[in-house]
Design brief:
heterodimer; A: mainly alpha; two-stranded antiparallel ribbon; B: alpha/beta; Rossmann fold; 12 helices; 12 strands
């Protein structure tokens, strides 16, 4: 059914129109121009780095802490602030507003005359009231910015000081303390007097419920995890193959048999790898996986895709240079790891930066990471003049990754490196190798269309992988429980964060309001001339931020029961930084809410990773600053490259 | 457009002015509630009708919960001795304090008690007061500079001594490895609390900045990260009241038992001590920092006594523990703790 359409565009070779705006952009190019892509890559980099150097980082409890810090207040606020920034404005009062709205909520519930709590408003009245105050605050900020035409930086700086002063002033005026509490008095009051708890019980579940991992046992968890992540990964790879390659008019049907054979081999390999810990078992397992992936994916490609016509292998000097530098970095990493005494790696202390896994890990991971980046830059440079040459370099990269994996396995003292890093690196090497072979054999696509299969495969792959990962993080097995693991609680705040991000992303990308947001941020005057209600849009964006501040304030009130006057002061810059790290432009008109959410994750990982690695906290801000700077530079670089390639 | 803008600017000015006024009325209203005096900043309060001695207390007070206790102490002493006390709160502005010191010298004060948040600006004017023959005392902060001024003595808590007291507490409570969590970086006072702990505590101390009070979520998770990286930690000292509560929350999140100590007091912290969740808090008993200088100035003026023997007079550390928490909570509500 698809062949007729493809034959008309594909097989007659020369395309009739050469309008560059309609030029076909490959799947990778399309992914790379997304504003959040830099943040995704930076997040993976930061995660890998801390995973390698900090012992508790990969555990479920570490994940729970990162999610907690990322979700609220940081994440929710970063997403809202990103939308406002896309709309071309700042809100410096957003940090102080989180604390202020939490305090207002508690004050409305609390009995002002100082008797027992519970004589104040019911929560059902207090929450809508504080929400109304929040929205009024946003409306005020937005209206002031519109009416005065002053920069929002100045206007909201004013509201910041007003809120900061009001928080302290009113707290001391009403409760004579610099903190206001306590919300859970409602529960105590209901318990002692038998009166209604005024909605506290229900709302406490809604805003502060916790999923205690230790009380959820699921023996099949590891199977679900393995199956979900593996099948998910496989579907993503097949989907990307489908999106990347040109369909053949007549493939080789026997390829499908190869695909089936490959799948069986990979499943066997995984089973072998995870059921034995012997050296030979690992070798067998890894080879089975590698062979299975190669045979399966190449078979599938042979059955479906068009063979490569131009097979010249000319490598430009730029590619060779960067590849050579990569080889130097890789050699350096291996020499460094081999030279440093592995028995005493814990004693390597430099400027008080003692880590559990030692300076060796930091050095090795940084150098090997640099080598990988240099290799990939070389591949990309080669690909521009010769597809097959790029494939060849990629194959060499894959082999060196595999070699490094075995080096890590042989040399590392840490079980985490020997098992998890090893299998992960081997898997990555296999994927790269198969990709390299496929790119030397099969033709790339040169037109869009017929992408539904590929997109569906990629989408379902991600869902499966998430299910597997979720099973791993949310459940324990009986044997783990018997070994005595620490309590790990996932807060419902994470769901609020996910939900808020999803809604904002939908609004920004799928609704008229979202388009207006980009328009007013790009050029307010021009947008107004084409009929966008610019002022109204801006006011609504300010109200969105103050809504988020209200949500965060309420979440904080239910979590801490007491809120201090200083809560949130100065935090607004963290929200802005998270948004910028996530690819939102300071100048407006460009950015993404998903990116801001990922930016919040990067910041949470940086904050949590340093104590996890047992680094001296005196250096904390130096590290966070460096990581953020690197993330922002990397983001900018990738975006620049991708847009130039457009 | 400009007209409308002017109108808005005027409105904003009114709002800001009202906010400022609100703050003022708040202060004096509070003062009236507390002690029945009608005094505002810098006004002489004649408490006795017959007292011919006038003492000036010049501090960087912001009249917050901490300083209002100091003020009550000073007023109670002045009341008991029948002297006049002039309470001059500098609200963290050294310039204001310099002016106040000069005013006190000009009025021929019988004794000046001052806090020294920034010695460089304040040592000079106080030396001038000593040269004029006025007895000078320092309180709260100034332990390192009172001798250079020529002040009789310093009344306050040494942060270092307070930390040492906490270390002895942890020894008694059987802790073996303590995390000293700080809520600020590069705050000398907080670091001295931790280094004092290291001096007397028998086990190992990990001294870390774990996150600002302004973001308690991050603070709690920062403490959790350190606890997870060092599973053998069995004690936590938070060098402020909020961070102590964060330590409790982190321990509860991880489901582990810690011996927790704190610094200073909030009703929430006292409640947690009463409930037995937190073992103790270090109290610098700031009521004494108000009361004692007035008494000592009175004795120097009337009886030529010089207390302290050249050493500072320490007002702490006092400890609030589950045994005395209920009593301290009641006194804290009365405003003297």
């Amino acid at each position: 059914m698809t062949t007729a359409a493809e034959a008309s565009t594909g097989s007659n070779g020369s395309e009739e129109t050469h309008d560059e705006r309609l030029a076909y952009r490959g799947i990778f190019q399309r992914v790379l121009v997304r504003p959040e892509i830099g943040a995704v890559i930076a997040a993976v980099g930061v995660w890998v780095f801390f995973w390698a150097v900090a012992e508790p980082f990969g555990r479920a409890s570490g994940a729970a802490s990162i999610l907690d810090v990322a979700a609220s207040p940081l994440g929710i606020m970063a997403v809202a602030v990103a939308m406002l920034m896309i709309g071309g404005e700042f809100d410096l009062s957003s940090g102080a507003a989180t604390g202020a709205l939490g305090i207002v909520t508690i004050l409305l519930v609390r009995d002002v005359s100082g008797e027992m709590a519970g004589a104040g408003f019911s929560l059902w009245v207090a929450l809508p009231l504080s929400l109304a105050i929040a929205l009024a605050l946003g409306w005020f900020n937005g209206t002031m910015v519109n009416r005065t035409s002053l920069p929002s930086f100045i206007v909201t700086l004013g509201s910041f000081f007003v809120l900061k002063g009001a928080k302290l002033g009113f707290s001391k005026l009403i409760v004579e303390q610099i903190q206001v509490g306590t919300l859970d008095d409602l529960a105590d009051y209901a318990e002692t007097t038998g009166a209604s708890d005024k909605g506290y019980g229900f709302l406490n579940t809604l805003f502060a419920a916790e999923w205690d991992r230790r009380s959820h046992i699921w023996e099949a968890r590891d199977n679900i995890y393995l199956l979900g992540t593996f099948l998910g990964l496989a579907l993503v790879i097949i989907g990307v193959f489908e999106l990347h390659h040109r369909r053949a008019e007549r493939g080789i049907p026997a390829g499908y048999a190869g695909a089936g054979l490959g799948l069986v081999s990979v499943l066997f390999g995984i089973n072998t790898l995870h059921s034995t810990d012997s050296v030979s078992g690992n070798w067998t397992g890894s080879l089975l996986i590698l062979a299975g992936m190669t045979v399966g994916l190449i078979g599938l490609s042979a059955a479906r895709y068009h063979p490569l016509s131009d097979r010249s292998l000319a490598l430009p000097t730029g590619a060779v240079t960067s590849f050579g530098l990569g080889v130097v970095a890789l050699a350096g990493s291996i020499i460094a790891a081999a030279m440093i005494d592995s028995q005493n790696s814990e004693n390597i202390s430099w400027l008080g930066l003692v880590t559990v896994q030692g300076g060796r890990a930091i050095l090795f991971v940084s150098l090997a990471g640099a080598a990988l980046v240099l290799f990939l830059i070389g591949v990309n440079r080669a690909r521009r003049s010769s597809i097959a040459g790029g494939g060849l370099l990629l194959a060499v990269t894959a082999l060196s990754v595999a070699g490094t994996a075995f080096f890590v396995r042989a040399e590392s003292q840490t079980p985490k490196f020997r098992t998890q890093a090893f299998s992960f690196m081997l898997m990555a090497a296999a994927i790269m190798l198969v990709w390299a072979i496929a790119s030397m054999l099969f033709e790339r696509r040169s037109s869009t269309g017929h992408e539904r299969t590929g997109l569906a495969l990629v989408g379902s792959g991600f869902v499966l992988a998430l299910v597997g990962l979720g099973a791993r993080l949310l459940y324990v097995t009986q044997s783990e429980l018997d070994a005595g693991i620490t309590k790990t609680g996932y807060s419902v705040r994470i769901l609020w964060f996910a939900g808020f991000t999803a809604v904002c992303t939908w609004v920004l990308t799928r609704t008229r309001f979202g388009s207006w947001t980009y328009a007013v941020g790009g050029n307010k005057q021009a947008s107004r001339q084409v009929g966008v209600p610019a002022n109204r849009t801006k006011v609504q964006l300010f109200m969105l931020v103050s809504f988020a501040a209200w949500l965060v304030g309420v979440l904080l009130a239910f979590r801490l029961n007491t809120i201090q006057a200083s809560t949130g002061d100065g935090e607004e810059f963290e929200y802005i930084i998270a948004a910028v790290v996530g690819g939102t432009a300071l100048t407006g008109g460009y950015g993404s809410t998903l990116g801001a959410a990922i930016g919040a994750f990067i910041m949470a990982m940086s904050v949590q990773g340093i104590p996890s690695a047992r680094w001296n906290s005196d250096w904390r801000f130096l590290f966070i600053g460096t990581i953020l700077l690197l993330a922002a530079i990397g983001n900018n670089y990738i975006r620049g490259k991708a847009e130039a390639a457009r | 457009m400009t007209k409308r803008f002017r109108w808005l600017a005027a409105l904003l000015a009114i709002v800001l002015f009202a906010a400022a006024c609100g703050d003022d009325t708040n202060d004096s209203g509070e003062a009236a509630d507390e002690s029945g005096d009608a005094g505002d900043n810098g006004e002489a309060v004649d408490q006795t009708q017959g007292g011919d001695l006038t003492f000036h207390m010049i501090t960087h007070s912001d009249d917050g919960p901490f300083w209002s206790v100091v003020k009550r102490g000073a007023e109670a002493a002045a009341d008991a001795l029948g002297v006049t006390l002039v309470w001059m709160p500098g609200n963290n502005d050294p310039g204001q304090m310099v002016t106040d010191i000069e005013t006190a010298i000009g009025e021929g004060s019988d004794g000046i008690a001052a806090s020294l948040p920034s010695p460089d600006q304040l040592v000079g004017p106080l030396q001038q007061a000593v040269a004029e023959g006025i007895p000078v005392y320092t309180l709260n902060s100034g332990a390192n500079d009172y001798q250079a001024i020529g002040a009789t003595t310093h009344i306050g808590q040494s942060e270092d001594v307070a930390g040492r007291g906490a270390g002895l507490r942890f020894n008694e409570l059987g802790a073996t490895k303590v995390l000293c969590g700080r809520q600020e970086q590069s705050n000398v006072g907080l670091e001295e609390r931790c280094s004092g702990l290291k001096e007397t505590f028998d086990g190992e101390v990990i001294d870390e900045f774990v996150g600002l009070d302004a973001d308690q979520t991050e603070q709690i998770n920062g403490i959790k990260a350190v606890l997870e990286a060092n599973p053998d930690i069995d004690g936590f000292l938070g060098v402020g009241p909020v961070i102590a509560m964060s330590g409790l929350q982190a321990a509860q999140d991880l489901g582990i038992d810690l011996v927790i100590g704190g610094f200073d007091m909030t009703p929430e912290l006292l409640g947690a001590i009463e409930a037995g969740d937190i073992a103790f808090t270090v109290d610098q008993q700031q009521y004494l920092q108000g009361y004692l200088p007035v008494v000592l100035m009175f004795l120097e003026a009337t009886n030529l006594n010089q207390a302290g023997g050249g050493l500072p007079v320490l007002t702490g550390p006092g400890f609030v523990t589950p045994e005395n928490a209920a009593g301290v909570l009641a006194l804290s509500e009365a405003g003297t703790r």
